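[Discussion] Sanity-checking designs against the backbone

I'm trying to build intuition for which residues belong where. Below is a structure token string of 164 positions. I'd appreciate it if someone posts a full sequence so I can compare it with mine line by line.
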């Protein structure tokens, strides 16, 4: 395990998020907010959940004790969501690129939204953030199909490495 691996994972996250954002730009506002059956009730809510998590982790990584959970407050347009998502994933990649590799196994102390205290190594948290986004991007593919948008493709890690 080394820093380069996590830089690659963060690059994969940016790449996959950009692909999904390109699909979101093509759907209507009605499809964006249409109720669907999933972990969250719409494409918009699922997208905002991913953005909220990526942004919250970036804040935690930078030492913020109180993080802003956008899912409770953000009311932007679809285009604003897309812009915010692209910025959040780029910020995560930049943070990892600038991160001191010697600290990968150092614990980050943090509180979850429910107030529970945790302490985990940075390398595990970096992997978690990317995995969390991957999980919900998969849900977005299914949700997009449910609202009638079928021009979706693969956003898996193998595709990233093949296209690199």
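Best answer:
Here's mine. Compare freely.
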């Amino acid at each position: 395990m080394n820093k380069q691996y996590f830089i690659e994972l963060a690059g994969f996250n940016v790449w996959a998020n950009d692909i999904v954002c390109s699909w979101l730009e093509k759907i209507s506002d009605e499809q964006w907010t249409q109720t669907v059956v999933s972990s969250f009730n719409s494409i918009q809510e699922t997208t905002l959940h991913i953005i909220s998590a990526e942004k919250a982790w970036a804040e935690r990584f930078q030492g913020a004790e109180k993080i802003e959970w956008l899912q409770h407050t953000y009311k932007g347009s679809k285009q604003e969501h897309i812009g915010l998502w692209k910025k959040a994933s780029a910020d995560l990649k930049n943070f990892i690129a600038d991160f001191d590799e010697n600290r990968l196994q150092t614990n980050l102390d943090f509180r979850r939204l429910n107030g529970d205290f945790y302490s985990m190594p940075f390398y595990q948290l970096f992997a978690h953030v990317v995995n969390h986004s991957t999980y919900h991007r998969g849900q977005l593919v299914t949700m997009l199909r449910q609202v009638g948008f079928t021009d979706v493709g693969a956003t898996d890690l193998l595709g990233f490495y093949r296209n690199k």
